[in-house]
Specification:
The complex is a heterodimer. By secondary structure, chain A is an all-alpha fold. Chain A has five helices and no strands. In chain B, α8 packs antiparallel against α9. The chains are: A mainly alpha, B mainly alpha.
Chain lengths: 128, 557
């Protein structure tokens, strides 16, 4: 985890430095500064997430001296090997976007089905 | 939607049961390997369609006056050809395809972190392809794969469909990026530290943040273009106070990193193939790994070198020119390391190795012309000419596509359990390599002489080389047809591969071909790098992987 945090922290700091430099070099050009700023923020958010939410995580992969017994007891639990909800979700997304371009009614129907699919998809994945 | 039962105390109580039936196993599968194969097959279908469009382009250019298709149709064809090759072929093949197929196994995981998200990422991909090609029915976009406003604002309804399709494929990419980062972060086997990860995994690790972060800029730009076209909200139309240059900023903030999305995983493939067939440790492992990360980061800092002719202020041009030169340094480090890996190696000239060596040669040419283009005076001279077409094809076909073919010949045995025919493979390589160079090399001097890109007709002085290129492109297409025949034929008739036909040392080659649905009976422990051919394998806990015994109960090891 430490290597991951450092990689993303350094990248975020570099992004901040470049965004500030761009702001001055480009005479306050807004689009590029905003894009670089968002990039730095996204990298910082990822590093921050790793620091805060994963601070107690103990990853066997981080320790070169780990053995199999240290990782034993992992339980992948129950999970499905197949699902049709992602396929249906993708088709609903198709309906939403085609509807937005071509026929709003199809889009609304697609949106309703999309919400249903996401609900079922979430419920199925939450069972594991 | 049957949830697989786990039998407490049974022999496989922490490995989920094998899916039964063709549909559950191959269509609705959540298995990362099957999803990888689904990506590969779908992307190659789109590759065939994009190839047909490419041949339509070359056939149109056989004569200075065109005549094969109407000029407007020609604009639609090259726009969809470019969009398909970038978003529906190269990116999905290298990330969703090869990434899903092998990288979880390479780090000793049994699956990716979010299998549902993975499956959703895949299924959004053919849907977006369907939308992209259906734009032909509504009047496809005509402003190239970049769709610069204001031309893209004036296009028919198909341009909105293009926006929606590319937005969707971006969503798919972002989800894949999140999945891969979390998988690499959290699911590595014991002892698989960052500096022991195979270089293909490093390639995916460097690519994933690009997928997550850069794609967001494109998604915002596409949403704005879509809203402006459909609902008239002015973002880019200068007549209504919008800024077309803002599109260029946002588009290239994504699309330059996208070049690295298309090349970093290919770098990873090459870094796997070269040491395996040179029978030597990879030279400069850490240099290659960290140069991938620095390329990914620097890739965000160079976008405006695509905009030197867009009215970019001179004080802004210089930093972008210098930063573009800087990005050549980590790329050069890789090329040096690969060449040093080959030096004094015991080279096996398999088809995968030929494609890897071909990659180094062609990508170097593409990279060097990229350095030319970073120089503002040169860029101003050749911008919008066939020189650009030559450069981008040397990078994306000579680089990414050659890497994809190397990966196909290398990992096809792991996918299918059978080897691709090597004789047909070598024929494919040589015809493709020759055909490619004859097609795209003359474009450099056509561009230098002033032939503009994206034109349906051209000045008669360019006729000879255009005809030459068109006939050469047919040779390249023939080579690709040989590959498709080889792949289809070899699935049933190819020589059985066994677990490790190449004597490779990464984890995916230490388990059966094709792998079992659970990947590993025991999660192995990793003790070192996978590239040192003079020492025993750096893994423990793999003794039973190649036996026919069923998986062991949880906690038994």
């Amino acid at each position: 985890m430490r290597a991951f945090v450092w990689l993303f922290m350094i990248a975020a700091l570099f992004g901040v430095a470049i965004a500030v430099a761009y702001w001055f070099i480009a005479h306050r050009e807004a689009t590029g500064t905003a894009l670089l700023g968002i990039m730095a923020a996204a990298l910082a958010f990822t590093a921050g997430y790793a620091i805060v939410a994963e601070r107690d995580a103990r990853l066997e992969g981080d320790n070169p001296k780990e053995s199999i017994s240290d990782a034993a007891g992992e339980d992948l639990g129950i999970f499905t090997t197949h699902s049709s909800w992602p396929v249906l979700t993708a088709l609903c997304v198709l309906a939403v976007l085609v509807g937005a371009v071509w026929a709003p009614l199809i889009g609304i129907a697609g949106l309703v089905c999309l919400l249903l699919c996401l609900w079922r998809l979430g419920a199925e994945s939450a069972r594991v | 939607m049957a949830v697989a039962a786990v039998h407490a105390g049974g022999i496989a109580d922490h490995i989920h049961p094998e899916p039964q039936g063709f549909v559950r196993r191959y269509v609705f599968s959540l298995d990362h390997k099957i999803i990888g194969i689904q990506y590969i097959i779908t992307a190659f279908v789109f590759f065939m369609l994009a190839g047909l469009l490419a041949e339509a382009i070359r056939t149109q250019l056989l004569n200075p006056g065109g005549g094969f298709v109407a000029n407007g149709t020609y604009n639609e064809i090259y726009s969809i050809h470019g969009s398909t090759m970038v978003w529906l072929v190269t990116i999905p093949l290298l990330t969703g395809g090869f990434g899903n197929l092998v990288f979880p196994i390479m780090i000793g995981a049994r699956d990716v972190a979010f299998p549902w998200l993975n499956m959703l990422s895949f299924w959004i991909f053919p849907v977006s392809g369907l939308m992209l090609f259906s734009s032909f029915l509504l009047g496809a976009p005509t402003a190239g794969w970049m769709e610069y406003p204001p031309v893209s604002l004036q296009g028919a309804a198909g341009t909105s469909m293009w926006c929606a399709a590319i937005f969707l494929v971006g969503v798919s990419s972002t989800m894949t990026g999140i999945n891969f980062v979390v998988t690499i972060l959290k699911m590595r086997a014991p002892g698989m530290t960052f500096t022991r990860m195979p270089l293909f995994v490093w390639g995916q690790f460097a690519t994933a943040p690009l997928l997550m972060i850069a794609t967001t800029a494109l998604a915002a730009a596409l949403a704005a273009l879509f809203i402006e076209r459909q609902f008239g909200v002015p973002f880019f139309d200068p007549a209504k106070g919008g800024s077309p240059v803002m599109w260029q900023h946002m588009f290239w903030f994504y699309s330059h990193p996208a070049v690295y999305i298309m090349i970093l995983p290919a770098f990873g493939i090459i870094s796997e193939v070269l040491p395996t067939f040179a029978r030597k440790p990879i030279f400069g492992y850490k240099l290659i790994a960290f140069s991938s990360m620095s390329i990914a980061l620097l890739g965000f800092m160079v976008w405006a070198h695509h905009m030197f002719t867009s009215g970019l202020a001179p004080f802004l041009q210089l930093p972008f020119m210098i930063l573009t030169y800087v990005i050549g340094v980590p790329t050069g480090i890789k090329i040096f390391s690969w060449t040093a890996t080959l030096f004094r190696g015991k080279i096996h000239y398999t088809t995968a190795m030929l494609f890897a060596i071909g990659f180094i040669a062609l990508f170097t040419i593409g990279g060097i012309t990229g350095i030319f283009l970073a120089a503002i005076p040169f860029d101003l001279h050749v911008h919008g000419t066939y020189f650009i077409v030559a450069h981008l094809h040397y990078v994306l076909v000579g680089g990414s596509l050659m890497g994809i073919f190397a990966g196909m010949y290398y990992w096809f045995p792991k996918m299918s359990g059978r080897l691709l025919n090597e004789t047909l493979g070598k024929l494919h390589f040589w015809l493709f390599f020759i055909g490619f160079n004859l097609t795209f090399l003359p474009m450099h001097w056509l561009g230098m002489e002033g032939m503009p890109r994206e034109v349906a007709t051209y000045d008669p002085q360019f006729t000879f080389w255009n005809r030459f290129e068109s006939f050469a492109s047919y040779l390249m297409t023939f080579a690709i047809l040989i590959f498709f025949f080889n792949a289809i034929w070899s699935i049933r008739n190819g020589k059985r591969a066994g677990a490790n036909p190449w004597g490779a040392r990464t984890l995916e080659w230490q388990i059966p071909s094709p792998p079992n649905y659970y990947n590993f009976k025991h999660v192995p422990t990793v003790y070192g790098l996978p590239y040192d051919f003079s020492t025993p394998l750096p893994y423990k806990g793999l003794d039973e992987e190649l036996t026919d015994s069923p998986p062991v109960p949880a906690g038994a090891h």
